[in-house]
Amino acid sequence: MVETIRVNLKVNGKQYVLDIPPDERLIDTLRYRLGFTSIKEGCGRGECGSCIVLVNGLPRHSCLTLTATLDGAEILTVEGLAPEGKLHAIQVAFLETRGVQCGFCTPAFMLLTKALLDKTLDPSDEEIKQWLASAICRCGSYHYYFKAVRKAAEYLKKGKILFDEKEVRKNLYKLPLLR
Amino acid sequence: MSKPEYVEIVEKVFDKTRSKPTKEFKYIGKEILRWDAISKIRGEKIFVADLINLFKNPVFVYSVRTKYAHARIKKIDVSEAEKYPGVIRVLTYKDIPGINDVGYVIPDQPLLADKKVRYIGDTVALVIAESLENARDAGELVNVEYEPLEVILDPLKIVEWGGLREKEHTLIHDERGSDVVSRYKIRAGDIKKAEQEAAVVIENEYRTPMQEHAYIETEAAIAIPEPNGGVTIYAKTQCPFDTRRAVAQVLGLPFSMVRVIAPSLGGGFGGAEDVGNEIAAKAALAALVTKRPAVVLFTREESIIGHAKRHPMIARYKHMAARDGALLGVEAEIILDTGAYASLGPFVGWRAIVHSTGPYRVKNAKIDLAVVYTNKVYAGAFRGFGNPQVSFAVERQMDLLAEELGIDPVEIRLKNALRNGDRTVHGQLLDHGVGLVEAIQKAVEAANWYEKRKLYANQKGLLRRGIGIAVMYHGNSIGAEGADFSSATIIIQRDGSIIFRTGLTDFGQGAIQGIVNIIAETLGVPPTYIKVEWPDTAATPDAGPTVASRSTVMGGNAALVAAYRLRQRLNRLASELLGCDPEKIVIDAPDVYCSDDPENKITWQELVEQSFWKGVPLQEFGYFRAPPAEWDEETGQGAPYMHYTFGAIISDVELDMETGVVRVKEAVTAYDIGRLINKTGADLHAIGGYIQGMGYAIMEDLYYSPDGKVYNVSLSTYHVPTALDIPEKITPIWVEAGFRRGPYGAKGLGEPSIVAIAPSIANAVANALGGRVEVSKDVNKIPLTPDYIYSIIKKHKLLRK
Lengths: 179, 801
Known about the structure:
The complex is a heterodimer.
Chain A: E1 5-11, E2 14-20, H1 26-33, E3 52-55, E4 58-61, E5 73-76, E6 86-88, H2 89-96, H3 106-119, H4 125-132, H5 142-157, E7 162-164, H6 165-173
Chain B: H1 5-17, H2 37-41, E1 59-65, E2 71-77, H3 79-83, E3 87-91, E4 116-117, E5 123-129, H4 132-139, E6 143-148, E7 159-160, E8 165-166, E9 180-188, H5 191-197, E10 200-208, E11 220-225, E12 231-235, H6 240-251, E13 258-261, H7 274-290, E14 294-297, H8 300-306, E15 313-321, E16 327-337, H9 345-354, E17 365-372, H10 387-405, H11 409-416, H12 436-447, H13 449-455, E18 463-475, E19 485-492, E20 498-501, H14 511-523, E21 530-532, H15 551-578, E22 585-588, E23 591-594, E24 597-603, H16 604-614, E25 619-625, E26 630-631, E27 638-639, E28 644-656, E29 662-672, H17 679-698, E30 729-735, H18 752-755, H19 757-768, H20 773-776, H21 786-795
Helix pairs in contact in B: 6-7, 9-10, 10-11, 10-19, 14-15, 17-19
């Protein structure tokens, strides 16, 4: 039997006590043990950036991080951006700027945006590019994602953090909804 | 023969709306958020690997691959591997109950190698274990005895110039007796006479790289055993019905016992076409052997060595023109390297030859093309499908002609561009819907072409700018590749919501949203009422493969036919309820009324409820078949595709003369897509296609060791464009020349968006290098890497002060 290590983790605001093998990667803990599948594995080597999560507020490749090293850490994934029925300003900005294509990389780009905007609400164009260069979008939505970062910054500056999902849907489509 | 009703519907809708500007439509051509955007920004479980947690007690399948790129298999011994902890079974070709083949077009590709291995990704055994780690570790213990054979990586070792005759060489496919997969030709007019009459003749050789799709989601499949020996597979596949055929063949089961479901795909670009069959078959095999859910997950390295690539091309072109720039003839020999297996190579070769003279009036042509095997990773479908390769050569040739003749590159293209009423090189009459000239003019205006061209002449500094144009056309759908049909089901639910079923998959491309827009416009309901089901061979109708820029046109036509029929029925019922002519019924859900009495309304829900009670069926199936394509194998004459998308691209680049680094600063793309159906998706596609094409032009290639191993099997060695590499601005422009057999006149955009990017960039680089023909002729291969460009600068002493 492999020896396990006890790790206290706060993921998306909820406390977990886990006994895990010392060689377990954070991405596997999050995806397969806890079910946070918004984090994607695209390469397993810290190159594509799809597995990025925020560890104590900073972006980290969850495929290159051993969970056992994170005792006491706070982790944020896209599932933790907003409670049920709400959407975070960053998610709203990504919807409004319409850059989502296959959507596989989008969670990582949103978390990179979160970390950047936690640091500054007035990022320069160069800063935005540098931060977003940590992940790859093969569909080529980068220009839209740059716009999304600026849009999200506007919302956050105005103190608008959480949006009602139904309202967002209504405003986005500007079309009648069935329910 | 009378026209089928579905063709009449499509033509009727086109004729009725032909002169209606796109801005006057309610949903068509609007910036509508894609149907799955909210689930995607919430990070919901929509990709195959996200579903693993939903299945209890899965087994994991690992593919043990060959150590040699070309060898005969003497013996496979799995006994040690089977003893490894956690291992349940190790399978080899002997364990395949059906036919051991996953070849897409011709049966040349075993799922598990039996007699030979032909490239570094060939699978020799499948380890099934309790964990992926156990399976991988055990894979090291599979013992294969090989007899290594000569590894051939150069297609010029298979065929030779001057007729593309096959040379004496070690056969890769001994069982076929030849390593030429297929040959095509075009014979039009009198090429000898054209050459005699020509004022200029330009000859050059071109090379294009083996591009990797690098979709961020790697291959994944989960197979679940079903009662009575059947199997359900969730797989990353672009074409679930093709995947079902392949799996059924490997398992020896009837199609009805194999169910393939394709959830959202994290990118496809053509690459998720045949590898989808392979991973699904591997998972299904393991599920049936173990009677447990079976998971196949590729690492990035397995993905890069294990799925089809873009065919590298080597071509020799000879263009002949009159003094005024009129094209007199094109002669060419083209070699496409399909690697170890044919995959879609025969079809890629065919699309390449169809497009091998570009969107020009060419009356005299002699083109020969061969698709050949080598021991590289196999090449198959990749956005563009043979057209980006030949377009690179053709568009470089056009610029060389222009330089030689002292004509502006735009002018030489306008002089020769296909127009309404022209015939293609195959003799196909284009009687309507040719928007190429308009696309060129609009792109030229938006890019400030003439001013910049003047500004960039005679530069001396270390950073030099260049501007280049390339044009393209691209046949819509699969043409003469096979039976070209699509189908769709629309079911209006009793509460007024709508279920849309199609076998077409969504890998981000936006076509499905386009079809939703078509249904919404036709029925008069907001797209938000419409739910798109996951493609599922047991539930959604076979819509043909999701390839060949066919979804909007073919899938859209099928959906249009279904929606149109539903709308007719609803109009009739509403006319009874409201008391006016059915033609006057306006459905603008939730409101339904007569056009001359808008105050007297009923609701959409009321109309649906009444349909239920009055026996008006609310389900409809739509089918559309493209007119059969014509192609004469001996001459390349006929009508290869039902219609073509046209485009013009202008790229503005900066070249660092000291390092050879090329950066694209700005670009304009103008495409004639018939009718703009999905504005958001089209813009994204033009821009995304540009970025992927830019990768093809300046940074992407697969590199091999002499023994056939791939050097760059990771994303830090295989470079794709990141946020730091892209142009500051890419401006999409839309031309809407219409197409009578497209839904509301629409044509495809999926592949066209990458076809002419690389030549526009290469032409801009040649412009930055000064535009002298002898220098320009050396800009004849992509990617335009810094070392390559620097070698040209050095050779021609372009930096001498």
